[in-house]
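question for whoever is on the cluster today: can someone run the full assembly for these? two chains, 1028 residues total. i dont have access anymore since they changed the login thing
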Amino acid sequence: MVEAAGRRRARGGGGAARRAERTAVSVETARYIERNIPNFEVLTTEALEIIEHNAETVLEEIGVNFVNNPAALELWREAGADIDGERVRIPRGLARQLCSTAPKSYTQHARNPERNVEIGGKSLVLAPVYGPPFVRDVAGGRRYATMEDFRKFVKLGYMSKWLHHSGGTVCEPTDIPVNKRHLDMLQAHMTLSDKPFMGSVTEPSRAQDSVDMCEILFGKEFVQQNTVMTSLININSPLTFDDVMMGALEVYARNNQAAIISPFIVGGAMAPVSVAGTLTQVLAEVLAGIAYSQLVRKGAPVIFGAFVTSIDMNSGAPTFGTPEASHITYGAGQLARRLGLPFRSAGSFCGSKLPDAQAAYETANSLNMGLLSGVNFMLHACGWLEGGLVSSFEKFVMDADQLGALHKFAQGVNVDEEAQALDAIREVGPGGHYLGCAHTQAHFKTAFWRSETFDYKPFETWDEEGARDSEALAALRVEKLLNDYQQPALDPAINEALNAYVVEKKASMPDAFM
Amino acid sequence: MVEAAGRRRARGGGGAARRAERTAVSVETARYIERNIPNFEVLTTEALEIIEHNAETVLEEIGVNFVNNPAALELWREAGADIDGERVRIPRGLARQLCSTAPKSYTQHARNPERNVEIGGKSLVLAPVYGPPFVRDVAGGRRYATMEDFRKFVKLGYMSKWLHHSGGTVCEPTDIPVNKRHLDMLQAHMTLSDKPFMGSVTEPSRAQDSVDMCEILFGKEFVQQNTVMTSLININSPLTFDDVMMGALEVYARNNQAAIISPFIVGGAMAPVSVAGTLTQVLAEVLAGIAYSQLVRKGAPVIFGAFVTSIDMNSGAPTFGTPEASHITYGAGQLARRLGLPFRSAGSFCGSKLPDAQAAYETANSLNMGLLSGVNFMLHACGWLEGGLVSSFEKFVMDADQLGALHKFAQGVNVDEEAQALDAIREVGPGGHYLGCAHTQAHFKTAFWRSETFDYKPFETWDEEGARDSEALAALRVEKLLNDYQQPALDPAINEALNAYVVEKKASMPDAFM
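^ ran it for u. tokens below:
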């Protein structure tokens, strides 16, 4: 059944056109951001060179550990590294040289080709929160996430105009056995949305399932020739590459599927407390990880990732939207561009337990910094709450709304004759009013970005309507989007084949909850 | 009495030292920000040149109105402008040439010289919200502001570590007659705080009262030789300079006191809907206003101001923290630097009725943009709510807390040997933990900025403590700061003289409430 569907799709030829036709009744999604603004750069060239030199010193002198992975050690040995137990010491310059075969940018295909995204260069692709075991909403409070919650988040992502990507583990469906939930999650992304998505990384076999299911959805040949998943490979900072994550990376790289190679750092715990020290370690880890991806398959698409937060030294809690995290992210962006690699960082990060002012300050700090630091792929762009423990329904739509402001800002400033508006200034003159002038009438519909979630009403109206705060307004938006949701069309044969794959695969294993 | 106090102070000589001594028991205030980071620039040189050319065209062809102000028209005529009724047309290049005598930066003195601020260059001075007729707090809701509210805000400003300036009309004390409230407001800033402050601009005579009261506080000679006030002169955009604001400007300029010359623009209403058009008008207005200040007194200290927001074309409401406002502010900063003038813009702007997530997203967007756009004087840096109709106690302390993050970010990245932390990376090695290492122990106290207001506790602790949101936490902070408040010492003779001035002045006029 699976194979039959795969063959049928591969045979088709005009698959892309057919897919587009099938999704004709679909919600609007903005094209990924193409920046027409400069990047903000916080480090001088001299500072960057010091950090690059030190990162090579770390790789050469200290090295990195590849744990439980003799095949990886062998690849490294062949490439010229010095192997000592599980420690890999990489001669100065070697990792950087190996990284040079990774593409500067790549296209991730969606089943609806209008939603393909370009990752790298001046682009910014926005994807939702990843990983929380809990969800929160106004009605139900904080609770363990279920598969039903997961599906709701995928639907919200599909309905969110400014979100280009369906993401991956938008929450952990804790009601499904741990060894089977990736199947349900992938099926949800594939059938409830037509935006690009991420594959499973929690076991190499689950990465393989992800590839297999993509072959059903896109056709086998298409998958081998194109990138249809971008998946998240975290490094066990400091300087450790475990066999599970590397196993998943190997599956993806061999199948030409993309991976974000991402140090996961709470500053002061997994890296030095200083910005320069953290950047040194981040660069060393990324160089080693991306070099390894290219040892597995030259040209495999990868992203320079950097998940970085600071820590509250009073409580030990990670802190978000902080100035130190911004310094590190801006610096990491500069390092990624000097390597010629796509860059992943930032997100709707916050430590607050509620989608309140704290959450919004921290998130806005991080989103703005993400745009200006040259991030190409922003995971967690909406919905993150409580340090990543919670996916919040209300915050998902609040954040997703704010992403519209990033789109508008990234367009830069138009200074053509119409935008110069000299005739409008002449028409109105001193003491006049622009609301009725010809230039305003011609442009008012597109001139200003506006929130689809928040309140712009006069005080009296707002008060009469119940004096609702942002969370209450967002809850209304969640409800509206879920009510308006219509599933994008999918070839019934593919739908059936995906379902059969999931059912068969689940039946082949006992449940595991650890 | 007043004169006696003034003379006594002027005679003293070591007045600054004495003032410092008297305030020895005082709360910590951070030094104004000196940026060690670049500015973000959104406009190309070509775009800037187009806008500059067009602004000169506006001044030459359309001109500006100076209303009810024959003396101003005469000054302009003498300077070479073309006068037609109240319309002043300024030949290309003249306004820019006149602006060249304005200083690039200036020192505003505080009665505690440790709190003097430098305005211009790479500095950023933060001042609180200005102008709202209402206040809001958790306990009392939204209500008309009173003088008691005003005093509380001055106390909060004094207690706020990251706020360098006491501001001006932190709220409108609507329980005091409109023609007398400036006296109470000035007295509050002068006696309840020792940070620099702003003068009254609502009548030229009130500007003169401000100067007179400063002469009591600082000594007559000191005031004539130094700048002790920075006051807000709004332009009636488009292109109109009214006699009240210009009258106040004239008083301040003649007395060597600083003025922010600031277009007040809701885009699409008081300026074109386009960014380039708005920037053209802003520049024309600022050129005319600052040129005029220099006609009144060459070398008078002034600031290039730009209060700009966009508009919600559905409701007509001004909107805040929007991408268009950011474009304009970044562009205005570039124009100000090309003119060599200090720049005022941005603030804790938001449209929300409550200090909730909407308020915080909008505010954080604006604060971050203010830092990166090179703002030198940020009015409204904390406490603004509901489009400027409301001064919020809780938002004041939330915003003031976030200003700490701006301070830290503006320091830039240290890459000295200690910050490089190579020894720490060596000590910890792959798979280790940095919390206990020597480098972390040496630096953890200063490594990371932390909020003094928000929540970093474990979920369970936070939940047990009442699951408080940001507003509730901020209310606790307001209470704590007001409880901890201690009035900074002031020479009793000066205190008495100020009080006598206010009492006598009030007795000399009937009450006016319009």
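summary bc i know u wont read the tokens: Residues 97-411 of chain A form a domain with the TIM Barrel fold (CATH 3.20.20.480). The radius of gyration of chain A is 24 Å.
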